[in-house]
Amino acid sequence: MTATEIKTAVITGGASGIGMAITKKFIDNGIRCILIGRDQKRLKEACCNLGELAHCIKCDISVLSKLPDLVEDISQRFGKIDILVNNAGIHLKKPFSEVTDEEYQKIILTNQVAVFSLSREVAKKMVAEKKGSIINISSMASQYGIPQVIAYTASKSAVEGMTRAMAVELSPLGIRVNCIAPGFIKTEMSSRALLNDPERGRKVHSRTPLGRLGVAEEVADAVFFLASEASSYITGVVLPVDGGNSIGF
Ligand code: NDP
Description:
This protein is an alpha/beta fold. The protein has one domain (3-240): NAD(P)-binding Rossmann-like Domain (Rossmann fold), CATH 3.40.50. 45% of the residues lie in helices and 15% in strands. It is built from 8 helices and 7 strands; from the N terminus they run βαβαβαβαβαβαααβ. The chain has a 7-stranded parallel sheet, with helices on both faces. α4 links the parallel β4 (83-86) and β5. The longest helix has 29 residues, at 101-129. NADPH dihydro-nicotinamide-adenine-dinucleotide phosphate binds next to α1, β2 and α6.
């Protein structure tokens, strides 16, 4: 494979949890991955372990003013961007009436507004190539009401709406936009959310027909499918990867 044939993917939060599984899946399939995150040490460790197809850039995506330069820098260094995975996200579990405006805005900024801004900048590059695939990561929180996650739920619901709005504008230009709604997947984030809440843990299991939490690799497989030519006629969908949690009773 020549350097120009190698696809390039930008994966926010690509150095941990679900993002790391996505990165590994892409690298196993010969895709160059640019990992974005705030934790320089974690990024460096990930890149060392993943080999020469992995590159990391420290960037806080909630600082929106940095995103145009970030995308320009990636384009200059690696050429075209074929795939964007908007995976980075933060969570806040707190009773509705105790959530401050600042806390609410921080979640919305990271999980929603940054997805818009980064996608816009990357889409400008993809439009020039007349192709690309953008994959957003939402959550079961957008499918039904989960207590104590008001800001997270709002942000992820917006991500699903944005997926459809982006798909209708960008697909005629050659860019497919899809979304994955993971169910309850074993990662640091979900462990924190389920920790000290055995009742919620029991509920998750009881309404998941496959009877277990998912693993990050199962989300990565679905992201890889949506990034690949195997899904060339799919755009604007929200695909649950949830062991049936969203249809469980
Ligand atoms: P993790 O907490 O393991 O990973 C989140 C990643 O996002 C980290 O790598 C973090 O990197 C990055 N990140 C957070 N904020 C920023 C920021 N401001 N700028 C750049 N990077 C940032 O979570 P998961 O792997 O569990 O979650 C990944 C995605 O999947 C999230 O969008 C989450 O909402 C979603 N999801 C997860 C579920 C689960 O059960 N685990 C269920 C449903 C959805 P760093 O700290 O270096 O900035």
